[in-house]
User: What shape does this take?
Amino acid sequence: MGMHGFRMAGADEITGKAYDARLMRRLWRYVRPHRMLGITGLGLLLVSSLNDLAGPYFTQQAIDHYIRPGRLNGYERLAGLWLLVLFVNFLARYGQSYVMNLLGQRVMFDMRNAIFSHLQRMSLRFFDHNPVGVLVTRMTNDVDALNQLLTSGLVAVIGDLFSLVVIAGFMLWVNWQLALVVFAIMPVVMGVTLLMRHQMRDVFRAIRTRIGRINGFLQEQMSGMLTLQLFNRERRALEDFDRLNDDYLRANLRSVALYGVFMPLMSFIGSLTFALILWFGGGRVVQGALTLGTLVLFIQLSDRLYQPIRDLAEKYNILQAAMAASERIFSILDEPASDVDAPGVGRMDAVNGAISLEKVWFAYQGEDWVLKDVSLQIAPGEKVAIVGATGAGKTSLISLLTRFYELQQGVIRVDSRDITTIDRADLRRHIGVVLQDPFIFTGTVADNIRLGQAMPAAQVEAAARAVNADRFIRRLPRGYEQELHERGSDLSTGQKQLLAFARALAFNPEILMVLDEATANVDTETELIIQASLLKLMEGRTSIIIAHRLSTIRHVDRIIVLHKGRVVETGTHAELLARRGVYFRLYELQYKDQAPALSA
Amino acid sequence: MLKSARLKAAVWRHRAPLLAGIVAILLANGFALLQPFLLGRGVDAIVRKQPDRLPLIFIAIVAAAAADAVFRFLQRYTVNGVARRIENELRRDMFEQLERLDQRFFQGMRTGDIMARATNDLSAVQQLLGMGLSSIFNTVVIFTAAVVLMLWIDWQLTLLSVSLLTLLSLGFLVLGPQIQKRFLRVQEQFAALSSKAQENFSGIRVVKAYVQEEAEQRSFRAINQEYVDANIAWARINSALWPLFGTLAGLAAVVMLYVGGQHVVQHRLTLGQFVQFNTYLILLSWPMIALGWVSNLFQQGAASLNRIEEILHQTPAVASPPRPLRPEAVRGELTFENVSFRYVDEPIFENLSLHVPAGSTLALVGSTGSGKSTLVRLLARVYDPQEGRILIDGTDIRDLPLDVLRRQIGYVPQEAFLFSETLAENIMLGAPDAPAESVERAAELSQLSADLEQFPNGLQTMIGERGVTLSGGQKQRTAIARAVLKDPAILVLDDALSSVDTRTEEAILRGLRGFMEGRTSIVIAHRISTIKDADQIVVLEEGRVVEQGSHARLLGEGGEYARLYERQQLRRELEEEELPGPALGAER
Assistant: This one.
């Protein structure tokens, strides 16, 4: 197994600084609009820190002014005042927590919107290189880690420091000699805390890495369970798992032991402190140099003095994780938007639909040319089928015309305008694309046709009727308002295809590009419906069909044969068959068997 | 939760450290309660002006505190350690069980669901055990002891202040479920937010093609807002929890101060006892909160344990027979006798019968969904047929131990699964003790060695997520080497050459020819070139044998097989045709 769990865990590993001024300045830009909330929260925090002194103070007052002298007139007032402070403290603490949550949520809201919007402006190349899961993690978990920084990290640190100063100052003010006795123990507390923090950091890192390894292993074994079983590897896999599981247990036991030492040690130091106060202070009370109430006050305060020190150590980890998360988030936001137009591109309102490709070269990667020196002219309203074996470069045509990808050499024109000089949103609005995977979004059937566009129901239904999707939609329990599951898992492949046609038709584009993959698992009847719908969709538009259906090919004006990235033949079905070239063989291979189905 | 036999057994197994922990809890609490008593005596000594007693009291407090710390450490170490050990055992049990379960189980439950049980649910149980085991006991001990001591000092004051403290437990019981409910909504909204982002990124082509970026931003904003709203609704209650505890504890302290002060003045209480009493109240507040917390954790923990036990209680549908036969040597004669099988409703086979003589090669041809892969999976008992039987050398495979059966089958699937280990380790999957030369030979036979120089460390190269990514063809060749090294009596190639080019395929087949000699082989392929030399070719269609015979015979019959052959010849011609211009790299 060795150390190969390392890189995976390393992706989320916290190794960086707990405070990075550059990152903080960038974060501040998101906090700034909500700074009033921050100030309010901070104010309330300070109020509640002061109120925390109330308990010890009132006890001192009670002992010195009422109980010891044995005079109880006005004692109710003292109790009443304390009750009032308790109530105010409740409000302040509640308000502080609520307001800080509000602040965190608002900042996170803005930040998630910013990331999402930014990603909408990224090109497909970006999405090719960044797995969806990673992008989702940036938007969710990493942003939440930042939230921790705001709600419990930064503010709590300020609050802790403030408490520390207030309590220490108060002690000095009440009795500086006794305060110094208490402070004498402070270095011990700090030393123990720092030592502990150092140890804990390593242990926590080990725990995180090791649980990551367990889960990674588990995930992998589960995916490969059949292989594992067929090769009788159960026992050895269990041994590997035991090793990881026991490693994790050991790390956990170390943390149990560390906490087991730390917590009791801290409470021992607490006891030591109050015993010291009792010894030193007791003598002074007897001498009359100190009141008994003050002694009790010190005993109660000493405990509260250590709390912020302990908390500060814990906050360190939160800060570190948040800094690492913000680093990852900003690295995405820093990626330049790659699917946006250069300034000065022109609008495009009306489109005739003439398309031309001039000496186009294109590769997804390096020099792996997918299209080689391709030139094509398509007249407005012309219907063209592109055919070729798999890997001939057909689909990249769609990617280039819609500017999903940029070509390396050559020019593509729509209505004799170079498409790189046209506003890309405008360009895409005039091109209807039906992809091989008819992507279905969660939402209603109608939503899936109109997408985000404001579109009257009549138009949606008309589109569905035109492509024969209406029939199956009406049979759904809630018709057009039927909610569809993720990825349309409750629809058949054919139904999804029809829905994608309806979507394309509803947007009524002048140019149509269809990836017409012959759909598997579709019965003959549906197949015939899809064929008819596709023809309907092509009516009156410049259409480029990446065709796999003979029926489609027969109905186009011209067939273009791509072979290994080059245009090798063009012509009508009959012409090309007569040439007995590449098309002839493709036909024999892919389309011939479809002939009987067509005549049915 | 307490009804779980598994948990009871686990607690019983760890009884020694748990018992030690309980003793530690008793002692630690004893010493903890001693300190306020000593403090009280110190205060009384001051009031009575006897400062010479103070050094002794100081030493006594420090000694009690030290003993308290030692036993507290023992308590944490034993009890929390046991909780971690039980978690470890539970996780192991779960993995062991998952290894026993069959494919039907894995198809019925999504990997994400299983993972959730192995991670979130397990940690919920662990939390409950860690917090619960020590907290409940600790609270009971300290509460009883402190209350007895307090009653002894001043019963009126005790009743008043302790009744206020019980509100702390109540606070959690009342607010806890509310917080939990709202937190669930936060989690649901979080899932919705993730799905929205996930969907957008996966469907980005459609989004861009239809210029829906702005509409998508709007709908994301709406979901984002709902997530924020759910969080704020949660914060509205959750923010009250700790301030409420502080206030309730404070309330008890006010009552204590007010009533207790009067009792001191009336000489029913010494000032030292007053201070002592006050300290007890502080000492009690955390255990009271913890009690409420634990009872809250209880429900979640119980639900989580149920979900875990749901997996642990599954009976594997495929398992070794209780009294298996142990065959001497396997020759590899295969017989399918009237086999009927269905995954759910749709029958895959009905009454299928086939015979493969030992040492011969059977080729299976047919379109996707015709049942070829299912047939070989039945042979390896990935599934059992509903009717009929499958025999190896005349023995029903269900009478053989599962590992003995699978030991004899070298199965190469189309989608080879490789583990994140080295190439060599992957090849040695079924033969972990094979010598290095054998591994190299297997790699040579499968033509994997031709690619080895591409890898930084040859056979020792780490592959998968944290190493080199292999191409489809390289994966297939690794899987073939893996099956070969296993030295099985029966070799199964389930479309195992689909991702290698024709030339490599020929080389692999040439290499395998010697290996297949004397072994029974089943070859599933789409390319006729792969199978034309098989002793027996079977064309399957919707689970039925439609043609059967040798290559020459089937060609002569002019049926489905002959048509397939003809088309492949055409394709081959087309592929081989080079057009003018430079031939450049792989295409997309």
About this structure: Chain A has a mean pLDDT of 86. Chain A touches chain B through 149 residues (CB under 8 Å). The first strand of chain A starts at residue 355 and ends at 363.
